[in-house]
Design goal:
The chain is mainly alpha-helical. It has helices at residues 5-36, 43-64, 70-91, 111-128, 136-156, 160-177, 181-201, 203-213, 224-235, 261-294, 298-322, 340-359, 387-409; strands spanning 93-95, 98-104, 107-109, 366-368, 377-379.
Length: 410
């Protein structure tokens, strides 16, 4: 197997496996409640399948298109994402008090998902052609300022989970770029303080934080979702109660098919199923970071690190919330949770990552060939041993011959 092919195979197998598994779990989590409520048991499955097909098309396109072209697409993507984030605040669909989706026919799209990918591409392109920020001022202009604008718009929706995911992705790109830890720590502290302020000014966010500290204190109120997730995970045991046999998803566990789908997995497939899902994300992280380490192109290296963190960082945030290790943020589990925009963007990101795995290691040093009339470069080759010495000897012979001819003429 050629170098780098193992990483690509791992990424493909994990992505397709988690996507197929996600379709099964979405059906399992939604069919019973829909049937009991007189709805269509396959409604969510059909919608998620459409998004999965669209995402797989983008994965194939992204894996075949040269990722270097994304450098030039970064500004249009950023402007498009900014326009959509503004538009969703004006004409977006309101669900559960949040205005995060734009309707496109019978489907919907979440602009903040595109914003995550756009910011990762733009930051990778910017830091690939400029030195890493060495001071807080350099970090703020323009990376911090641009990110702050997007985060402010997304917080208004409101969607704190996506803001956290964006911060994690940009942090990974900055680390790979060589930003000093001192600068990262200072910037992270400022971002953390702003996050606490955003939590404090919203009553429902404060309630989530307090319920995280002690969910059983208000088990029927703010801590209800966390308590039901823990009950579901605990009732699954080692092997689970069986696929489709869970009871928490039926009028007990809110958002069992989106944010809390890992609790459904733990209940129906047990500890073994939950551990296998976590192992799949660990394998994805291993392969994605190896792609970043192997890539010789500065842009590809930073983008690969950012895209890997985009998937695995989001998975870590979701798993921590479901397990009760972090406050609930409303962020989905990549490839598995129901969420069309998240699935499409995640699959498209994997396509770009596969292209980096295939082309990122092919960069080679080149020097201009002055003997060519078209100015094309030629590959840099080491001069053979003794080449310079041979040239000097030939020059000495020419000088000696020239001096003898001059002496003869005189």
């Amino acid at each position: 197997m050629k170098k780098g092919q193992l990483d690509s195979h791992i990424l493909v197998l994990v992505t397709l496996g988690l996507t197929a598994f996600g379709l099964v779990m979405v059906y399992s989590a939604t069919s019973a409640p829909a049937a009991l409520g007189g709805g269509d048991p396959v409604f969510y499955l059909k919608r998620e399948s459409i998004y999965a097909l669209l995402g797989l098309v983008l994965l194939i396109v992204g894996s075949r298109m040269d990722y270097r072209a994304l450098r030039y697409l970064a500004p249009p993507l950023m402007l498009t994402s900014l326009g959509l984030c503004l538009a969703v605040l004006v004409m977006g669909q309101q669900v559960n008090g949040a205005r995060r989706w734009l309707g496109v026919g019978s489907l919907s799209f979440q602009p903040s998902e595109l914003a995550k990918l756009s910011l990762a591409i733009w930051a990778a392109a910017y830091l690939a052609r400029r030195p890493a920020p060495r001071t807080l001022g350099e970090l703020f202009r323009p990376i911090g300022m641009t990110t702050g604008i997007f985060c402010a718009l997304i917080l208004v929706e409101p969607d704190l989970g996506t803001v956290i995911a964006i911060a994690v992705v940009l942090g990974a790109i900055l680390v790979v770029s060589g930003t000093p830890l001192r600068v990262l720590a200072t910037g992270g502290s400022i971002a953390f303080a702003l996050g606490l302020a955003a939590i404090w000014i919203e009553p429902y966010r404060r309630a989530r934080v307090f319920s995280f500290l002690d969910p059983w204190h208000d088990a029927q109120g703010a801590g209800f979702q966390t308590v039901q997730a823990i009950i579901g995970l605990g009732s699954g045991g080692l092997f689970g109660v069986g696929l489709g046999q869970g009871v928490q998803k039926v009028n007990y566990l809110p958002e069992a098919h989106t944010d809390m789908i890992f609790a459904t997995i733990g209940e129906e497939l047990g500890l073994i199923g939950a551990v296998l899902v976590i192992a799949a994300y660990c394998a994805f992280a291993y392969a994605g970071l190896r792609v970043a380490l192997r890539c010789r192109d500065p842009f590809g290296k930073r983008l690969a690190a950012g895209l890997t963190t985009l998937v695995c960082g989001q998975a870590l945030i979701n798993l921590a919330a479901v397990l009760g290790l972090a406050p609930l943020t409303g962020i989905t589990l990549p490839f598995v949770s129901y969420g069309g925009s998240s699935l499409v963007i995640s699959l498209a990101s994997v396509g770009v990552l596969l292209n980096i795995a295939g082309n990122g290691g092919r960069a080679s040093a080149q020097v201009p060939d002055r003997s060519r009339g078209d100015g094309r470069p030629r590959a840099a080759v080491a001069r053979r041993r003794g080449g310079a010495r041979g040239a000097r000897r030939q020059g000495d012979l020419r000088r000696v011959a020239g001096s003898r001819r001059g002496a003869a003429r005189s």
